[in-house]
Design a protein that fits this description.
alpha/beta
Length: about 375
Amino acid sequence: MSTAMPDATPCLKPDATPDVTSDAAPCAPTATGAAGTGAAAPPPAGQALLPLISVVVSASGRAHLLERNIAALVHQSLARGLYEIIIVDAFPNQHARHVVAAWRARTHASGPAIAYLHGSGTQGRAAAHNLGWRSGRGTIIGFTDDDTVPSPDWLLNALDAFDDHIDALYGRIDHAGVHCAARATTLEFAAANCFCRKSVLAAVGGFDERFRLAWRDDTDLQFRLAAINARLTHAPHASVTQPPRPASWGARLMQADKIAFDALLYKKHPLMYRQKIRGAPRWDYYATAAALLLALLGLAAGNRALALAGAAAWASALAVLCRRRLRGRSGSAALLAEAVVTAALLPPLAVFWRAAGAIRFRVWLA
């Protein structure tokens, strides 16, 4: 599974992968390689040359984010003939189509080729990613999201790290210029910035589409790559920025349903889950939810002693969670109030969704 580096043969000969882009321009190999500063050599007559990297962008119909993302992808330091952009939009709309059409018009002659695929028929990010990489023509597939801003050398640095002994790699994700160290220590392989050989993706079957939400699907792929002894490396210089967006009040509570997919990940990879995700179940959440349930049952049964005991246990557990959540925090009264409300409501919600996932996927609580 050797891969030509950017200063060697920049384009590959056709294979069995279908060309899904209607406006794909032929690659323009250059004598000086990745930067594309040499004279372009025309492809041999009758031979269509294919890009080396297919970049799959998971989009959600957010035209303003897509505009920013495509701009960063088009202005990469890697020669434009070496890569293509495949946007899979779960919520295609007129504004997003207009953004893509405008960029297609600008890059039609010089590249990179840009494909816009409707992902509205897919179920979740995992399915959208599968649609994208299977449509790609490159031998290396890169993944990112529409809310990221890839650095100018993102593709060049990723390709530099892809020697003959590497099957997949993950880059660095910055949040407003600050390295996201907390995520990197546990979930190295994030779908917002990772690369994999297409042949390796095919060998493991791509992403598991049972992960209907954008949660744990990338971690599952990482664990399955490890299971086949795929060679994974970290390329910290292949970085993308994920600028923070204003979050609605109680956003964590609104996303609690994602926790159900922890059960699926735990069922598939119990040992890796305990090593990488969580060493033990959230007993603090279970205890907090149990105390709250005890208090409510006491109230419903008219048992004052039971209700008081449950309320006292719940208040004690809540105080511990609040201290943990508020540690080192500052901000407005509204932000502090949100932290307290989240600490109070998240444990029962998390327990509910963990139980729902355990029932759905027939596994013990993760």
